[in-house]
Amino acid sequence: MEPVLSVRGLRTHFVTRERTVKAVDGISYDLFPGKTLAIVGESGSGKSVHALSILGLLPMPPAKIVAGEILYRGKDLLKMPPADLRAIRGNRIAMIFQEPMTSLNPVLRVGEQIAEAIILHQKKSKAQAWAKAVDLLKKVGIPHPEERVHDYPHQFSGGMRQRAMIAIALSCEPDVLIADEPTTALDVTIQAQILELMKDLQREYKMAIILITHNIGVVAEMADDVVVMYAGRPVEQAACGALFKNPQHPYTKGLLASVPSIYVRKERLEAIPGQPPDLGAGLPAGCPFVSRCSCAMERCQNDDPPQFLLKGGRMSNCWKAEEACENRTHRFESAHEAAK
Amino acid sequence: MTETPILEVKNLKKHFSARSQMFEEKSTVKAVDGVSFSVLPQESFAVVGESGCGKTTLGKLVLGLEKATEGQVLFEGKDVAAMSRAELKAMRARMQVIFQDPYSSLNPRMTVEQIITEPWDIHGLHRDGAARTARLNKLLDDCGIAKSFLTRHPHEFSGGQRQRVGIARALALEPKLVVADEPVSALDVSIQAQILNLLKDLQKEHRLAYLFISHDFSVVRHLCTRIAVMYLGRVVEAADSETLFNDPQHPYTEALLSAVPVPDPSIEQRRKRILLTGDVPSPLKPPPGCRFHPRCRYVKDACRTQDPALAEARAGHFAACPVLPFKDKRSDAALVAL
After folding, report:
1. Average pLDDT for chain B
2. Contacts of residue B242 in chain A, CB cutoff 8 Å?
């Protein structure tokens, strides 16, 4: 199967006079139709910046994409003229955001906001678009859609706003849906509803989903594949089941062990000591995780581990993975450059 | 033998009057509507619920930051509302609070040392230099704060470090009860685990009782021994932690537990999720009868008219559901865990 979206060696830096913050520093993956790829990481790991880079939504400057390719059906979004990108954004690749309150326009009716994308991308009349908006609201499970389509966002509850956001994102039946912490602001019972809705719609539209989240439980529920990010770069990539069963990178291990679960009562959680590095101050030499790592070796201090390709197509950026490595390469992008 | 509770809440109510439109008639939000429970010394008691269930208002009532419309809060057997100013001040030294947001709950113009030692100045304690320094150092040690932090300001720290400062401040007066309102929900997972472990250690060492207010069942399960679940201003179920998680007796608790994502794909695939339909109704117009009935999958005719009271299903396990016990078997959610 052909990937619908391929990210190759993406590096997004924020460049100011004082300093350069390497918010995303080399991420590569393939996204396949109908599949969900979860990008997991803590605040500041670069997961949201990476998503905004895909859609060209970052303010430039200070943001600068210094390297990489984002291939949508083989075409590089980064090299596209703005008009072509506009035709894809919100149409073929859509996004939903964390804060359904701030990402909807408070002075426009919900219906108008859904119709906007339909009129823009599908050349429909206003009446047709409005009718489709009602359909979409119904599809995302809003009761009495014919009436609620006239409401303003503040008349919706948090869960309904997120449903409306999903309706906007789905209005053009996108190939790729980027969901940036879609349920973080919601209560658990509403979160369960929204996740269920996303799964149903994915099945129906054969949509690929990039799910950005910090919630390990949501990953376990939704993802087919997982990329774990730390300090702006992926540290481990694997299929969801394999990742949870047998995490390879010490950060992934620590992250999974530090999450409390309702099923297991642990006497102590295995917390990862220390703090994530301050990207603004620049990363020291060596592995960015070394100061918090429980199995750090001497070489980790000075030698930044490359990405090791392991069995089953998974990858880990850790010297510990070197022995098990089938194909000791490289950071993903250097291999790609070599192929060119 | 029963212990004397450190905190007792009796039929506590807090009603706010509200006007949704400018000229509309006044209506009442019953944020807390008849809540009773007690917290024993050195126990960690959790109040869990979704947004708008009244858990934060409950915390404020306990702390005396809001005045109750009805009912009583008894701290070590004494009614908080009837206390004199001096008594109240003394009580506040024994009951401290940790807030949710470590960014807004620390004064940005004070150094860490000033923040942690301010409670001593207010209560006229530990004025002597050497003993004060020794106490401060012990406190820093206990909370995992480096001494070099003392002269710095809150903005120089990350969320987890700030929360440690907030915890040190709460413990400075050696309280017996700590009210913690979502103390880890603003933190990243790896930091959250650090703070949870810290709270657990401190409880042992300082013989604390916690009133832990949270929306996160996983966190509560890890930390707390008894749990009350709130829905629309009421406690709908209360039990010790193991019982509640393994054998929930209220349909709301059951659905809530099944909705919590579990960090394990093999469990996720097997378990059945009970999806609640719709949103939490507005507390301005709670439904008649049982407040949960519009979303309940076991609803009976009686539920639409009769408002069930909290009743003891079995020893120490309370639930406000008349269809009770609604199931003999363990719930679907719990089944998978076995």
Report:
1. 86
2. 265
Residues paired with residue A67 on neighbouring β-strands, in sequence order: A11
Res A140: pLDDT: 82
Could you tell me the CA-to-CA distances from B330 to A80, A134, B318, B326 in Å, in that order?
A: 57, 41, 16, 10
Q: Please name every residue paired with A5 in a beta bridge, in sequence order, or none if there are none.
A: A31, A72
**B47 CB contacts (<8 Å, ≥6 apart)?**
B37, B55, B58, B59, B211, B212, B213, B214, B227, B228, B230
Instruction: Give the SS3 label for residue A100.
Output: coil
Residues in chain A closer than 8 A to B241 (CB atoms): 265
pLDDT at A329: 53
Q: Where are the alpha helices (DSSP H) in chain B?
A: 55-63, 85-94, 112-123, 129-143, 159-171, 189-206, 217-223, 241-246, 251-259, 265-270, 332-337
Distance from CA of A130 to the nearest CA of B (A): 24
Q: Mutate one of A163, A188, A240, A256 to test the B interface: name it (highest B CB count within 10 A).
A: A188
ipTM of the complex: 0.80
Number of domains in chain B: 2
For residue B94, tell me if it sits in a domain: yes
Burial category of A196 from C-beta neighbours within 10 Å (exposed 0-12, middle 13-18, buried 19 and up): middle
> Do B41 and B132 reside in the same domain of the chain?
yes
| Same domain membership, residue B277 and residue B188 | no
Which candidate in B21, B189, B224, B276 is best for mutational testing of the A interface (most A CBs within 10 A)? B189
Tens of pLDDT, residues A263-290: 777 778 888 888 888 777 777 788 888 8
- Cβ of B190 within 8 Å of Cβ of A261? The answer is no
- Inter-helix orientation angle A110-122/A126-139, to 10°: 120
> Is B207 found in the same domain as B61?
yes
State how far Cα A256 lies from the chain centre.
19
pLDDT band at B2 (very low <50, low <70, confident <90, very high): low
Which residue in A217, A260, A265 is closest to B261 by CB distance?
Answer: A217
Same domain, B13 and B88: yes
Range of the domain at B143: 7-224
Contact B240, B61 (CB under 8 A): no
A115, A176 Cβ separation under 8 angstroms? no
Specify the pTM: 0.84
Give the CATH number, domain containing residue B156. 3.40.50.300
Alpha carbon distance A133, A110 (integer Å): 9
Strands of chain A, DSSP E: 5-15, 20-31, 36-40, 63-72, 75-76, 93-96, 176-180, 208-213, 225-230, 233-239, 307-309, 315-316, 327-330
User: Same structural domain for residues B292 and B172?
Assistant: no
| Residues of chain A with C-beta less than 8 angstroms from the C-beta of B217 | 188, 262
Question: Is residue B328 in a domain?
Answer: yes
The residue of chain A nearest to residue B333, with distances taken between CA atoms, is: A263
Within-domain flag for B79:
yes
Q: Which residues pair with B230 in a beta bridge?
A: B235
Do B37 and B106 fall into the same domain? yes
Q: Where do we find the tokens 């915390």?
A: B59
In a domain, B232, yes or no: no
In a mutational test of the A interface, the residue from B188, B224, B277 whose CB has the highest number of chain A CBs within 10 Å is: B188
On whether both B203 and B285 belong to a single domain, the answer is no
One domain, residues B177 and B291: no
